[in-house]
Design goal:
Radius of gyration: 20 Å
Structural class: mainly beta
Helix content: under 10%
Order of helices and strands: EEEEEEEEHEEHEEEEEEEE
């Protein structure tokens, strides 16, 4: 079988002010063109559309000699399909904003911003390489692959309440194993989790970040990143909401 070679799969996007003003930029930049490459963390097929989650970074000023990190700073990651994008920014607290240097009537950075890739980037491509994999039959086979330091990819498939089919594929970064009790348990992420978010205009807006756990083919539990109240009345973005999917198809695949 073939799986994604996550070690060699990347998302590329480019802004070029000589071509167009991107809708994702809200400050004057010390460059005319900037190209970004991000490793791919997860793939999700939903309604026959493939979405990818790029690796997280921090909000920054590029091509400067000092003061690289924006203040307030945010964790930043990109979700994208061939046509649509979703930018996720997580500040110290939910709802935090800063002035827009180009348009004072708009916030500097949105926590969730979505749109069409062509309006954000002049170049955009998702380069996923495929590699041969072998299905691992049971916990002992998983144990042997992990002890041998082989690369393992997992797939989780299930159906949403509205009938939408979801197929996740992701590298197994963290895993628990035992050759005495003959078990394994995946605890890894981040992955994409389609949630019941109201009033979305694009399917990509349904996604939240999550970590996934499973130790058999039949079920999976996700811990989802959602706005979470803390003492003092504020809220933060935190992996705090557990969601269990009772009917999944989980597969463990070794890359050889």
């Amino acid at each position: 079988m073939q799986v994604c070679d996550f070690n060699n799969s990347f998302h590329h996007f480019r802004v070029d002010f000589d071509i167009r003003q991107p809708i994702t930029v809200s400050s004057k930049q010390p460059f005319t063109m900037n190209h970004v490459r991000l490793p791919i963390e997860c793939l999700c097929v939903m309604d026959d559309i493939t979405y990818m989650l790029g690796a997280s970074c921090k909000t920054e000023r590029v091509n400067v000699t000092e003061n690289v990190w924006r203040d307030p700073n945010a964790d930043f990651c990109v979700v994208s399909s061939a046509d649509d994008f979703l930018l996720l920014k997580q500040f110290a607290s939910c709802g935090q904003e800063a002035p827009n240097e180009l348009d004072p009537d708009r916030p500097l950075q949105f926590e969730r911003q979505s749109g069409k890739c062509d309006d954000a980037w002049c170049v955009h491509h998702i380069d996923t390489r495929q590699i041969d994999g072998e299905l691992l039959a049971d916990g002992d086979a998983v144990y042997d692959a992990i002890i041998a330091n082989e690369t393992v990819v997992s797939q989780t498939e299930y159906e949403l309440a509205d009938g939408t089919k979801v197929s996740l594929e992701y590298p197994v970064k963290c895993i628990n194993i035992s050759d005495r009790e003959h078990y394994y348990q995946v605890d890894t992420g981040p992955v994409l989790f389609p949630d019941d978010i109201p009033d979305v205009s694009l399917p990509i807006e349904r996604f939240r970040l999550a970590y996934v756990a499973h130790n058999c083919p039949q079920w999976a539990e996700f811990i989802v990143n959602v706005p979470t109240p803390v003492d003092g009345g504020a809220a933060v973005h935190h992996y705090s909401q557990s969601r269990r999917i009772e009917t999944t198809a989980n597969r463990m695949i070794v890359v050889r």
